[in-house]
Amino acid sequence: MLTFSEENYLKTIFHLEQIHSNGVSTNALSKEMETKASSVTDMIKKLSEKKLINYKKYKGFKLSQFGMETAIAIIRKHRLWEVFLVEKLNFSWDEVHEVAEQLEHIKSEKLTNKLDAFLAYPKIDPHGDPIPNKDGNFPKISKMLFSECQVGDEGTFIGVKDSSSIFLQFLDKNNIYLNAKVKIIQKEAFDLSLKIEINNNTIMVSHKTASNLYLQS
Amino acid sequence: MLTFSEENYLKTIFHLEQIHSNGVSTNALSKEMETKASSVTDMIKKLSEKKLINYKKYKGFKLSQFGMETAIAIIRKHRLWEVFLVEKLNFSWDEVHEVAEQLEHIKSEKLTNKLDAFLAYPKIDPHGDPIPNKDGNFPKISKMLFSECQVGDEGTFIGVKDSSSIFLQFLDKNNIYLNAKVKIIQKEAFDLSLKIEINNNTIMVSHKTASNLYLQS
DNA sequence: AATAAAATTTAGTCTAATCTAAAAATATGT
DNA sequence: ACATATTTTTAGATTAGACTAAATTTTATT
Ligand SMILES: [Mn+2]
Ligand SMILES: [Mn+2]
Ligand SMILES: [Mn+2]
Ligand SMILES: [Mn+2]
Q1: Is B3 on the interface with A (CB under 8 A)?
Q2: Which H/E stretch holds residue A135?
């Protein structure tokens, strides 16, 4: 049985592997977990002991098949609970992440699968992230950050990179909603800000904002 | 912020105070928590430090007002989650306690209150126990163990004392359901077993069983 | 009231998860 | 290539929650 801490490390390693596909470093993980590198080394040894990761001293680490499955199971729970909170309990999308951080650690496969059924097997969470099914499979959604788009690109706003409350509330305030139709109108060379057309409104978004919004074309 | 362990102690102290209304002893708590007395002493000191209980060395302890409110809030969550699992996710009444033991520790008042609303403010949990409202109030249900009844007593089976899976499954198997109409037909002096009429069936129940079933007359 | 028994507390150990400071290994720049 | 910087690991400390064994306090019995 894994501890909450072990589960949180696994989840974070999983996310880091999406970016650093050739293995994760101690420092990268310590930064993401907001702990000291020495604490990471300790935990890494435990996870390695438990066959959840493959680790060679000084050489970084990667999730094992078992570690991968475990991480995905936690992410599945996190996202299903987020859907529950929004769809059934009327939470707003900026309030759910924190609570889901707790709920993701509840240990009952039966609960997870019954919750999945109760929610009618949702495919994406309130922030546009895909929800793994019972077997751990989920589609890789092809998407692109607004900041990486070219002028003239168009498509649908399908997800956020940053799920923090402050960012999501900022989007609400500016009427930037999931599934809105978007077109990149103009890009300022000076500050990389974008002029976009979203739901027939033309607005400016900063580079920082644009690099946290995903477009699907 | 309380740890899971502190919360579990508080809850257990609360339950013990229902029986030992003049204060709880270290040994009684250690027995109930399935820990050693010395571990209880350690925890008691922490809870006392945090003003959750009133404690005098060697003299036992009692929940403070604050400790009482905290304990009731945890019990509220436990029972609400049990209702959710049975009513919404189709768990059976013998499967929910274990999962609720985990869910009761989720920290979000908003979640608790929204869950309460979603469930339409239930008054009792799947085992017949009352659910405290947002302010911590709940009715003291007048009830009596079958084993304490006299021949001729009648009423409704409204709750169980033991919520263990094994006991609840045993009740299911013998068609003993919550809210059944019950009449005590006969009591054997030899082994204190009872002959009862329940839903127009006449069955025998052992003293052990009878001392885990509550009747409301 | 003295002694024996039971209950409770204290002292010291262990594990998990964190930290700081120091040492060791690896990577980088000229 | 070698000195320096960076990264990673090790060593030692701390806190929470458990344990065992021993000491202390309270309760019960003669
Ligand atoms: Mn989230
Ligand atoms: Mn988490
Ligand atoms: Mn229960
Ligand atoms: Mn619990």
Answers
A1: no
A2: none
A135-170 pLDDT, tens per residue? 999 999 999 999 999 999 999 999 999 999 999 999
Please give the residue of chain B at the shortest CA–CA distance from A106.
B102
| Sequence-separated (6 or more) residues with CB below 8 Å from residue A6 | A43, A46, A47, A50, A52
Question: What CATH number did the domain enclosing B176 receive?
Answer: 2.30.30.90
CA atoms within 13 A on the CB side of A207: 7
> Residue A56 domain-assigned?
yes
Q: How far is the CA of A78 from the centre of ligand 4 (A)?
A: 21
Whether A24 maps to a domain, the answer reads yes
Of the residues A18, A37, A63, the one at which a domain ends: A63
Q: Using one digit for the tens of pLDDT, what is the confidence trace for B6-51?
A: 999 999 999 999 999 999 999 999 999 999 999 999 999 999 999 9
* Average confidence (pLDDT) over B179-188: 97
User: Is B179 a member of any domain?
Assistant: yes
pLDDT of residue A145: 97
Q: Is B151 on the interface with A (CB under 8 A)?
A: no
Give me the number of domains chain A comprises: 2
In a domain, A109, yes or no: no
Instruction: Domain of residue A32: give its range.
Output: 4-63
Q: Residue A5, CA: closest nucleotide via C1'?
A: C17
Which residues fall within 8 angstroms of residue B14, CB to CB, at 6 or more apart?
Answer: B63, B68, B71, B72, B75
CATH number of the domain to which B35 belongs: 1.10.10.10
Which residue among B34, B63, B92 closes a domain? B63
What pLDDT does residue B81 have?
A: 98
pLDDT tens for each residue of B54-92: 999 999 999 999 999 999 999 999 999 999 999 999 999
Interface residue A95 vs chain B (CB under 8 A) = yes
> What distance in Å separates the CA atoms of residue A194 and residue B127, rounded to the nearest whole number?
59
Interface mutation target, options A4, A80, A102, chain B, most CBs of B under 10 Å: A102
Please count the residues of chain B. Answer: 217
Q: What is the pLDDT of residue B71?
A: 98
Report the C-alpha dihedral over residues A206, A209, A212, A215, rounded to 10 degrees: -70
* Ligand 3 center from residue B104 Cα (angstroms): 10
What is d(CA A36, CA A27) in angstroms, rounded to the nearest whole number?
8
**Å between A33 CA and D4 C1'?**
29
Considering only residues 112-131 of chain B, list those whose CB is below 7 Å from strand D.
Answer: none
**How does residue A107 score in pLDDT terms, banded at 50, 70 and 90?**
very high
